[in-house]
C-alpha cells in the first residue's frame, strides 16, 4: 500500500465548484521561478498561499548541522503553504524549486476571504490536512526503523508516483532528481546513496540515464522497501 506514504492535494482545485475556482484564480498572481529558488523559509511569517502550476517543489527541514531532510515533493496542481495560514503560525519548514517552475500566489487576506465564502474549500482543506498528517505519521514510523536500502527503495517508489504525469499516466516515468536531493530524501550521505543506487542497477531493479532514474522491477523494489 504505497498510497499511505504519498500525499497530494491536487483534488483541492479539481473538486471545487466553478464559482469557487473562479474566486481562487481571480486572486492568483503568477510568477516564474528558476531552479533552486527559495519560496519561503522555516520560521518566517506566512503572507499567502501558493499553487504550483508547473514544476516540482521540495519541502524540507534543516538540522543544526545544516543538513537537509526532504519531507515532501509537490507536483503541478498542488497548493502549499496553507497550513501555516490556517494555524496562524510561522512556516514550519522551507520550500524551494527543484526545477524551473510556475507558481501562483494568493495573499493571506484574499485566501481567508475566499475561505469564508466557500464551505467546500473549507471541507477539502480539512481533508487535505488530515491526510497530510496521516502520511507524515506513516513516514516517520517507517523511516525511523528502516535500513538505508529500504528507505532508498521506498523513496524511489514515492518519487515514481510524483513524477507520473496525470495527463499521460501510461508514459514511461523518469525520476529527475539530483543525487544530493535524493540522498536528503532518503536521509543518508550521498556516497552511501550512490552505492545503493549502483546495487539497484546491478540487480536490474532500476536503470539510469545521467541523473534520471527509471524503475524497471516494481515487485522486487516493493519487497525491498518492506513497508507492509
From TrEMBL:
<dbReference type="InterPro" id="IPR050397">
    <property type="entry name" value="Env_Response_Regulators"/>
</dbReference>
<protein>
    <submittedName>
        <fullName>Crp/Fnr family transcriptional regulator</fullName>
    </submittedName>
</protein>
<dbReference type="InterPro" id="IPR012318">
    <property type="entry name" value="HTH_CRP"/>
</dbReference>
<feature type="domain" description="Cyclic nucleotide-binding">
    <location>
        <begin position="12"/>
        <end position="132"/>
    </location>
</feature>
<keyword id="KW-0238">DNA-binding</keyword>
<dbReference type="InterPro" id="IPR036388">
    <property type="entry name" value="WH-like_DNA-bd_sf"/>
</dbReference>
<dbReference type="GO" id="GO:0003677">
    <property type="term" value="F:DNA binding"/>
</dbReference>
<keyword id="KW-0805">Transcription regulation</keyword>
<dbReference type="InterPro" id="IPR000595">
    <property type="entry name" value="cNMP-bd_dom"/>
</dbReference>
<keyword id="KW-0804">Transcription</keyword>
<dbReference type="Pfam" id="PF00027">
    <property type="entry name" value="cNMP_binding"/>
</dbReference>
<dbReference type="InterPro" id="IPR018490">
    <property type="entry name" value="cNMP-bd_dom_sf"/>
</dbReference>
<dbReference type="GO" id="GO:0003700">
    <property type="term" value="F:DNA-binding transcription factor activity"/>
</dbReference>
<dbReference type="InterPro" id="IPR036390">
    <property type="entry name" value="WH_DNA-bd_sf"/>
</dbReference>
<dbReference type="Pfam" id="PF13545">
    <property type="entry name" value="HTH_Crp_2"/>
</dbReference>
<feature type="domain" description="HTH crp-type">
    <location>
        <begin position="146"/>
        <end position="219"/>
    </location>
</feature>
<dbReference type="GO" id="GO:0005829">
    <property type="term" value="C:cytosol"/>
</dbReference>
<dbReference type="InterPro" id="IPR014710">
    <property type="entry name" value="RmlC-like_jellyroll"/>
</dbReference>
Amino acid at each position: 500500500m504505497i498510497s499511505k506514504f504519498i500525499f497530494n492535494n491536487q483534488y483541492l482545485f479539481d473538486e471545487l465548484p466553478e464559482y469557487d475556482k473562479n474566486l481562487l484564480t481571480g486572486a492568483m498572481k503568477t510568477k516564474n521561478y528558476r531552479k533552486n529558488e527559495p519560496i519561503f523559509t522555516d520560521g518566517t511569517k506566512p503572507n499567502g498561499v501558493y499553487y504550483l502550476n508547473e514544476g516540482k517543489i521540495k519541502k524540507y527541514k534543516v538540522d543544526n548541522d545544516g543538513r537537509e531532510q526532504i519531507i515532501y515533493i509537490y507536483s503541478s496542481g498542488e497548493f502549499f503553504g496553507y497550513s501555516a495560514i490556517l494555524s496562524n503560525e510561522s512556516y514550519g519548514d522551507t520550500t524551494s524549486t527543484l526545477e524551473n517552475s510556475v507558481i501562483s500566489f494568493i495573499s493571506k487576506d484574499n485566501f481567508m476571504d475566499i475561505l469564508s465564502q466557500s464551505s467546500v474549500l473549507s471541507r477539502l482543506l480539512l481533508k487535505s490536512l488530515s491526510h497530510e498528517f496521516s502520511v507524515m505519521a506513516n513516514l516517520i514510523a517507517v523511516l525511523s526503523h528502516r535500513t538505508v536500502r529500504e528507505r532508498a527503495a521506498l523513496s524511489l517508489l514515492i518519487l515514481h508516483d510524483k513524477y507520473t504525469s496525470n495527463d499521460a499516466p501510461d508514459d514511461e516515468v523518469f525520476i529527475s532528481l539530483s543525487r544530493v536531493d535524493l540522498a536528503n530524501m532518503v536521509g543518508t550521505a550521498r556516497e552511501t546513496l550512490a552505492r545503493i543506487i549502483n546495487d539497484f542497477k546491478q540487480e536490474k531493479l532500476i536503470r539510469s540515464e545521467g541523473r534520471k532514474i527509471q524503475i524497471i522491477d516494481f515487485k522486487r523494489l516493493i519487497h525491498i522497501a518492506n513497508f507492509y
